[in-house]
Amino acid sequence: MHDLESKAIELLALCKDKGFRLATAESCTGGGIAAALTDIPGSSSVFERGFVTYSNDSKEELLGVPKTLIDIEGAVSEAVARAMAEGALAHSHADMAVSVTGVAGPDGGTSAKPVGLVHFAVAQHHRVTVHRERRFDPLLGREGIRRESAILALNFLIETVQNAPD
C-alpha cells in the first residue's frame, strides 16, 4: 500500500473514533492532501472541506490571511502557515485544520527560502496553533517534495489527533 494512502486511512480512522472533522488549506501540495483523504471510501464522515490557495490572493480571499502578513513575511513562512490553518478552521465546520505552504521547485527558491522549504501548521478550536518547518532535499524534485509534504502533513495530523483529549 502506498504510504500516502496508508497515512490517510490511519488518520481517517483516528478522526472517526474521536469524532473529529478535518479541513485542509494547501498551497504547494495543490490539493494532494485532500485528494489522498477523499480517495478513501467513507471519508466524508471526517473530511469537511479543502482549500487550494495557491495564489496570494486566494489565501487572502478564501482564508482571510492578511495581505500585510503576506507582504511582510512572504507566503512561504511560519506566520502565513499559521494564518492559513486558522483561516481554514474559521471558514469551515471542522474541528482541526492543517495548512501547507512551501517552495516545491524547480524554480522560485531564494537563498532565504530555498526549493524544498515547507511550512506546516495545525489549528484547533481553543488551542494554540502548532507549526513545523521542513527542508526537503531539492533532489527529490517537485513531485517528491509535494508527495513528502502531504505525507508529513498527514503524520502531523495523526500525532495531533492522538494527543487530543477525548
TrEMBL record:
Domain of life: Bacteria
Keywords tagged on the record: Hydrolase
EC number: 3.5.1.42
Listed InterPro entries: CinA-like_C, CinA_C
A GO MF label: nicotinamide-nucleotide amidase activity
SUPFAM superfamilies listed in its UniProt record: CinA-like
Pfam families according to UniProt: CinA
All residue ranges annotated as the CinA C-terminal domain in the record: 10-160
Keyword Chaperone attributed: no
Identification of the protein by name: Nicotinamide-nucleotide amidase
Organism (species): Rhodopseudomonas julia
